[in-house]
Specification:
Layout lengths: L5 H33 L4 H21 L10 H24 L2 H9 L1 H12 L2 E3 L1 H18 L7 H27 L4 H28 L10 H27 L2 H23 L6 H22 L4 E3 L8 H13 L1
Antiparallel strand pairs: 1-2
């Protein structure tokens, strides 16, 4: 049964965020080990495998009767997949062609771009406190993550494509769920198979262009295969939790509060891989970012903190009820 009281909704919201944080941090740690220890540098193909596992999960849930049949028009489906695939490839290329500092700046710029999309498309209005809290998060995360910053033309173009495609993809996750009353699993069931197929076909060629390594020449040892399987398994939770969080909130909230994962990854890195790079300004940046996130959560939830003009969107009430119930259970 879907949460009916404010207290129950808060519990479900917190559970959704925790699910996303745990799976996102987990997959980062596993992928770092996979690439650094076992030399598996085929990021695009690995993402295709992630969506293959996600597709299998949605098929099993549909076979078990946990999710109901739903419809997503082909033009919307293709538009979403194009944004999503450009986001994946763009982020990989941006990381390779840019300095770490500029890559982090590009990731941070997704927040104002997502805000712009909501303002222009959905006519959302932000209060002064909400705007200031977003600014504080940007300052805090930039202080603790941005180091060297160097820009080149092709790197800037890759970052520009990555930022806009990622922002559009996340906006559409929320938009499509609301417009067609789809649950997160319903939407994944429509999008994951096409993403899996396209990335598995294009991935080896893209990865070869980026790394000059052929995926068929990789030495698939047992530990490497175990880590690949572990990465794909965790990715199912990461993909699902992302769709749940953006569906329940918005892309902007997902971006702002999602930087808690950045802070956690930094902390875990210092714990497990040594304290090199840990200094006063990094700690200060973490504190500023966390204060900004708490402020944002409080400011955006107040009346007038984040207001949207009501839009007339087609509803499919039956699917909507089922989707709300399923996401609450997850």
């Amino acid at each position: 049964m879907a949460p009916s009281t404010k207290a129950e909704k808060k519990v479900v919201d917190a559970a959704a965020w925790m699910f996303n944080v745990v799976t996102s941090v987990g997959i980062i740690i596993v992928n770092k080990a996979l690439m650094a220890t076992y030399g598996y540098s085929f990021a695009t193909t690995l993402t295709g495998l992630h969506f293959t596992f996600t597709t299998i999960m949605t098929l099993i849930l549909r076979w078990l009767g946990c999710i109901q049949p739903s419809h997503l028009p082909l033009p919307d489906l293709l538009r979403f997949v194009i944004y999503a695939n450009f986001s994946i490839v763009g982020m990989n290329v941006s990381l390779m062609w840019n300095s770490v500092g500029f890559y982090q700046i590009a990731k941070l710029s997704m927040i104002p771009v997502s805000c712009l999309l909501e303002i222009v498309v959905d006519k959302v209005r932000y209060s002064r406190d909400t705007k200031l809290s977003i600014g504080l998060v940007l300052v805090g995360v930039s202080v603790c993550t941005v180091t060297d910053v160097s820009v080149n033309t092709k790197g800037f173009i890759a970052a520009f494509i990555a930022v806009w495609s990622t922002s559009l993809q996340q906006y559409y996750v929320h938009h499509l769920q609301k417009k067609y009353s789809l649950s997160s699993v319903n939407l994944l069931g429509h999008t994951a198979p096409i993403q899996a197929g396209s990335l598995l076909i294009l991935g080896p060629f893209i990865d070869y262009r980026l790394t000059s390594k052929r995926i068929d020449a990789y030495n698939y040892t047992l530990p490497a295969v175990i880590f690949i399987t572990l990465s794909c398994t965790i990715a199912v939770g990461t993909n699902l939790s992302q769709f749940i969080c953006i569906g329940r909130f918005t892309a902007v909230s997902f971006q702002v509060l999602g930087h808690m994962k950045t802070i956690l990854v930094l902390i875990l890195g210092f714990i497990f891989f040594g304290k090199e790079g840990l200094n006063l300004h990094v700690v200060l940046g973490m504190i500023i970012a966390v204060v900004g996130m708490i402020w944002y959560g409080n400011a955006s939830s107040k009346p007038g903190g984040k207001e949207r003009k009501s839009l007339s969107l087609p509803k499919q009430q039956k699917n909507g009820a089922d989707s709300s119930e399923f996401d609450s259970k997850v």
